[in-house]
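WARN retry 2 of 3 for item q-0093 after timeout on previous attempt; input resubmitted unchanged.
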Amino acid sequence: MATYHLSLKNGKVGTAEQHADYILREGRYSGGKRAEELVYKDANLPRWAISASAFFACADRYERANGRAYTEFEIALPNELTHEENKKIVNDFITAHIGNNKVWTYAIHSKPATFDDSQEQIHVHIMICERIVEDGMTKAKSPSKFFKKYNSKNPQNG
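OK item q-0093 returned
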C-alpha cells in the first residue's frame, strides 16, 4: 500500500554541494550500500555548470551568507508503480510546479521498507534554486552574477 510523505527543506549556505553529492550519490557518497539505492537522476543546469554538484558548490560560494542555497522537496512515490512510471510522475511534477526557468536536480532512491523488506520505499529528492533564469539555461549569468541579490538603490553593485 502506498504511503504519503512530503517534506520541504531549506538549505543553508555551505551545505548545498555536500547535500547534492549525497542525494545524487556522487563524490564520497558514490560507493557503498547507499549508492545502490539510486534509481535515476536528472538535472536542469546553466551551461557553465558541469554538474549539479558544481552548481551547488557555486551556490555555497557566491550566495549571500544568510541566503538560501537551495530548497528541497522530499516526496514518497507509489511503490506500486514501476521506476519508469515514477520517473514520469517526477518529471510531470517538475514541469507543473517548478518549470525549466529554474535550476533543479533530482534523484530517485529506492530501498527496502523499514518494517517489511519485501516492500520498496521509493522516494525522490528534488533540489532547486529559486532564482529565475530569464533567458534560458544557455544564456544564464556567470556564477558570481547569478547569485547576487538585486540592489535597487545601486544596480551596479548587484
